[in-house]
# Entry
Amino acid sequence: MSDVAARPAPNLLANGWVKTGLILVGVVAAAILGARLDGSGTLYKIFIDPFEQMVSAPDLLVQTIWEGLVTGVLYALIALGFVLIFKASGVFNFAQGIMVVFAALTLVGLHEKGVPAFLAVILTLGVMFVLAVTIERVVLRPLVNQPDIILFMATFGITYFLIGFGESVFGGSPKQMIADQLYLPKGAIDLNILGGLVSLQKIDIAAAVIASIMIAALAVFFQYTRIGRALRAVADSHKAALSVGISLNQIWVIVWFTAGIVALITGIMWGARSDVSFALEIVALKALPVLILGGFTSIPGAIVGGLIIGIGEKMGEFYWGPLVGGGIESWLAYFIALGFLLVRPQGLFGDKIIERI
Amino acid sequence: MNAEPMNRTGEPVAAAKGEVLLSVEHISLRFGGVKAITDVSFDIRKGEVRAIIGPNGAGKTSMLNCINGFYHPQEGQITYKGVRRARVKPHQAASDGIARTFQNVALFKGMSTLDNIMTGRTLKMNRNFFWQALRHGPAMTEEIAHRKVVEDIIDFLQIQHIRKLPVGKLPYGLQKRVELGRALAMEPELLLLDEPMAGMNLEEKEDMCRFILDVNNEFGTTIALIEHDMGVVMDLSDRVVVLEYGRKIADGTPAEVKADQAVIDAYLGVAH
# Structure
């Protein structure tokens, strides 16, 4: 082609990733230089020492990343519940966290009443379906066409209702998840690699596998089926969806029920790692930084965001935590999210808002 | 009110095609104290192009919203295919074969042209949730069959080049065409078009006119459209109903309406 020479050289700096990369390289170079010149050794402890530790003890690094990965998968699952409902109804469902607790409590509670484990799972699914239908009838339908903030506040109402209802039916004390009865694996696999011992809990492996399968299934369902298309359509425009014969009420029941299924699986997995209590609801708030990172409307975003937050949190706690006396795990996620908000407010995979003026 | 007798006597019937598909009888619609529509009656006959015209705020869009179930009129009744419909819901209207487009395009902006038009097939597709979820067997065969129909519509509307583009990025004229495509994918018996030519340039208007006439001629689809461009209305429609301040002031063939003194005073007189 003759016009190749006439074409201007591509401006590499215009590419966001190249720019970000250059800035990162600059920061690292400045840090290393600073650490060399630094007398007290503070900069050395922040910028050099953690990485030296990572290299000198790779087994600890692998262990930390694995722990972060598993936590991240569970964050991703909770975030997924948020994304499902946000996509289809534009409602930020504050109640997703309590739905996880409620589903797990129902399962354990039913089993305590003498229902066989797998029957209890099916019954719990039934309860989540009834919950979805009830929310659609009692909360969403009367509030249709109200501003988003009204619906958001309504989900606060759902949260407190579920807390009260759950406590009065199942009691407030923490419960043990029925992991054995559901044939979830126990114990750990110890790997002798990298000159040390890396211990992988079997339940964590199971959680990662089950979560991956579920996420893949949901992604295919959303992308390629009629109902998935209808869900995305509703997310874009209510009146247009109505005009092609999509029933909003039906779609809302489907998404809330799907979010309920996700909540149940999250509850089982999380409950099997610790116990089933209302404290889990606070953990569910970690889904917020995950969503800011990944974008509120993206399923892959929820997953990647969850993994970044999970791994970042554990690495931060393990390598940098001791510098400030530890305990940074509880706020580091929000800190990372804040950084992201400054650079990329729509999240990694979120829809960039296109507005014709 | 010379419109009523005109409807009953011989002349307009000559212009009208076939039997009555939809009839609107004494419809009144209020929003609190605001009367959007007051006691309006007209009918739409099978196979015709029926125009609804009138100045801004005459209640034209409200009328369409009543027909496809977005609004529920307080008084009067709507009979569609011989069935009197009480409080119809939009998705029921859609499954009865009423499709529509909107004044300010309402598309699924994040989705491609192809996916947008595919949503129009929603009601034609088998409802089996299980196969859907597996994306296998009957659901897959079905998906392919519907895809064929949609590709035909894309060819018909000459929008092959934007099949895979997200519609939010398309120019307005093309968005309107995609929206028409989505309505056509429903294989409607009655197609409601709310200002299909609004905001278009001359060339786009001519294209759109041609598509509307083709749909009417080739598929025999009954069309009810709202339009401001009088030239377009006169060329396209078989019969015209004129609304002003929520009331019907005339009803008849384009020529009759044009000659009607009430219409000239209320609408044409102002515009020209």
Q: What stands out?
A: Chain A is about 70% helix and 5% strand.
